[in-house]
Write a structure and sequence with these properties.
Blueprint lengths: L4 H18 L7 H21 L3 E6 L7 H12 L4 E6 L7 H11 L8 E5 L10 E6 L4 E5 L5 H7 L1 E6 L16 H14 L10 E2 L13 E2 L3 E10 L4 E7 H5 L8 E6 L2 E6 L12 E5 L4 E6 L4 H5 L5 E6 L4
Parallel strand pairs: 1-2, 1-3, 3-5
Antiparallel strand pairs: 4-5, 4-6, 6-7, 8-9, 9-10, 9-15, 10-14, 11-12, 11-15, 13-14
Helix pairs in contact: 1-2, 3-6, 4-5
Length: 322
Amino acid sequence: MEIAGVKGQRFYEAHAALGRRFSTRRGMGALAWLLILLALSRIAGAETEKYPPTIVFMTDFGMVDDSVALCKGVMYSIMPEVRIVDLTHEVQPFSILDGARFLYGATPYFPPGTVFVVVIDPGVGSTRKAIVAKSQRGQFFVLPDNGLLTLVAQRDGIEAVHEITNPDWMVGTKTSSTFHGRDIFSPAGAHVAQGDDWTKAGPEVPVASLVRLDLRAPRVDDRGATAEVIATDGPFGNLVTNLSAEDFLKLGYQRGQDVAVKIGGKEMKVKFVKTFSDVPRGQPLVYIDSRGRFAMAVNQGNFAALYGVKPPVELEIAGAKR
């Protein structure tokens, strides 16, 4: 077991340590030994209650029908004590890129062992694979192999992948061709969360064969940085990029300086500030967003609409002049 078994392992390690400590002492009565075991079991039980296994659930289903509830029902039927966290069910329909960026933004805030079940699946019922992947951070991802893991793989790395083909990890004998969220991804996620051997989901898939979105990883050198505008921030039109604050700051910029950028061939200079109100209303700005990435916005305006930016698009940033 790789998730639920962690607390059990702590219990047995403590048990063994006490056994080694007291086995050589005379007069250790059976009653005292029983009381120690009882105390340890209560501690283990308290930890389990405090930190239940967690599934983070994201889809493009919306909330107007019963799809999300049915998927949760499947998960609870397999593991009633699981904790399900809704990341969002309002991903733009069919937008694998949006799903990839939300996943990228969320995973740093959850511990190793968390299971992410993601169903944004325009290719449902086709030859695309349903997979379980384990990142090098120790998190699990149950989702279609369609590019959703692109950004997480670039940052965290993927340790191993298995295709979901085991019928025992699915719902029923008649799997729907259009609702794999209920019939495949939800039960598989619950099996992983309850500590079942995730490699039993099906055959191993080479990590190198994973489908990846056509997004280049950011490049930073002495001349500047090349990255991607991958999305806009909801209704505000702020530009979301795949360039981390750490990589941007390597270019030598300080707040208050103008940053030379080129977006889709358009060159401009934009002031680097802490927050939106640091420039006059209607003026553009460069800032570090709440997820720790280079971003661009217009104070009380819509950058994407004002400058005609439609992601994905290449972003170039010149190094600061010294």
